[in-house]
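User: Hello, can you help with two protein structures?

Assistant: Certainly.
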Amino acid sequence: MSLAQLRERIPLANSWLLAAVFFCIPVQVAPAYVLSAVMLFLWVIEGRIGGKLRELAREPLVRVMLGYYGVLLLSMLWTDDRGWGWQMLQRHKFFLLFPLYFSVARAGHFGRYVAAFLASIVLCEALAFYNWAQLYLWPGLPEGIRVAKSTGDTAPFVDRIFYTPALALAGYLAGHRLLFDANGARERLLHGALLAATTLNLLISGGRAGMVGFLALFVLLAFQRFVHRPVAAASVSAALVAAVLVGGYHASSYFRERVDSAVDELVHYQERPNTSGSLRVVYALNALRIYAEHPMLGVGIGDYPKEYERMNALHTPGWEPAWNPHDQYLQTLTAAGIPGGVALALVLSYPLLRRGPPDGRERIRRAVPVLMITICLFESYLLRSNVSMMYMLFTAALWRGVRAGP
């Protein structure tokens, strides 16, 4: 095979590699790095580097994603703890990979990428259901593949912090295909079964942020289905949310325990030190105090643990210190102040507000940022590798092939 023939085949090969990275989202992030390195190598071998770079430079999303990373990098100038700062920047490496994913993605292959992601979800859900059965129904079964973080986790590869946002998006995609893309009863049955399985998997996972994100996407999907009937959309979404919450609360003891503990800890957080809910309240209060002292530029991406320990000792000495506020908005504001807040607003809102063609992907283009905007209230998800990767991958694939512009 000549070099010219090899270069002609590289775009297709890279598209398959990108699909493999989509498969990694709910599994493990390490293979995604290897696949991305191979992808980058082939991208360089393919040639036309200047043309591809000029194309990327014209794409607003590339500027938005790199701009966010650039603001965090700039905050290293006023960071005392450079070692921790570099560790935190490492957690944002998928922002640097976004241009590669955008360049490699092919608009006509979006269905392939979604299929790879959903295939991975199906695998994880099957293993999670087995783990649940082994934990609660038949303890004599051989122990399955299960993440070893807490006794209640049923996810096979990553804990619920990473797993449930992927489930939330998978549930939306299954519902979207059921309502808008399914051809015939067989496809509707398949996607309806996947939606039901994903909902059940969320209920047994214990991931509260993912569940809230899933319900937000449920509401969005109802309004997308009844786009010209807002009253019907509100009624259907309210009924669906109530059915999931009430059904899950009464059917799953683990879900009921997680809900009850969350309510109790949030209402009585001062009397429940170092519980999950009370810590989230204290994290937020202390992060706001840190930001109030450094509103313009923040404390720098490396100094949050030191500043939090100081603030914690002053105001909440009975609570454990934290390395991040478990809220993406507060994390970015405390790290880089107003420039960081503006950059974060662009990362999350530009894909939501940007106009796109009615090509069958326009509803999903809204869903992905809606999910991230919601769950970032409960965790610093842009520095959580699997979820950050998911956002970069879907944003790149959804907007590839769309003319740059507002």
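That covers the first. Now for the second protein you mentioned:
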Amino acid sequence: MNRKDYLGVIDHAALENGPALLIDFEKLRKVSACGEPVVPVIVQDASSREVLILAYANEKALRHTLESGLATFWSTSRNELWIKGKTSGDELNIVEVRVNCEQNSLLYLVKLAGQGSCHVKDAKGRTRFGCYYRRVGPGGLEMI
């Protein structure tokens, strides 16, 4: 199955909640085309160690994260600072920021201030805890 329908538009409801595996293998190409130097950021719940989000940060986002104590990223699609939870209230409070051995990615250990961290809601309209809520199975995607 293709990520886009016949009009070339992504069906976000099907992408975010459907059972079809529609991996965006062009994502890193799009990130590099945003024109801003960024590194990947893995966001983990500080208590459970569950991976919540994969995002990107530039120097401005990292500086804001360290100064404010709020997980902040660079939106590669909107080309702007993205302070997680600023509009939804689902802020991610920084417990610790780590850098990998080659200093080309970051790890934000966070404490959730709201219901969850994902922009996608579940069937009851609640914010999902993290963005990794489906498992790849033999028949497609399965909710976990």
